[in-house]
Specification:
Distance between the termini: 58 Å
Shape: globular
Helix content: 40-55%
Strand order of the largest sheet: 1-2
Strand content: under 5%
Order of helices and strands: HHHHHHHHEE
Amino acid sequence: MAELLGLPLGTYARYESEAGYKKPFLPLDFTRKVASVLADHGVDPADVMTLAGLNENEAEPEARAVEAARPQVQYVPLQLALPNEAALRDMFRSLLVLIPEGATLDEAAEILARRLPTGLSAIGPVLLDAMSAALPAAGTVPPDPATNRHASKPSSRT
């Protein structure tokens, strides 16, 4: 974490130590940096901003600023096994309660887009060993869901 924040280990360790850091809250600038680093790992910046002593109303604008400063591209590994339908339903329910009544579709979409990575990470990892029976064997082409047939090679006829 010290390396990600660009701090010497001793400086960062002071914040982690109860004996070294005696204040009840972290400095706001430091908390912004921590929120930015942890946002890259699926942690909601608004939650991190509470470490600076901010209440929910104060933390949300800070969290939006942290999110706005993040790169616009999110890299996601493509080898993906989604949780079952019940877990996804529960995750979406928890995300939908974050949308205030009367929000526009654009506002709702922004809230959901901002919170979806956190929601997915909260479900937890899916062990691929348990899913291996459902995955196609290496080098095979899975059936096309539209035709229920294996994809064929393109024809060489002109």
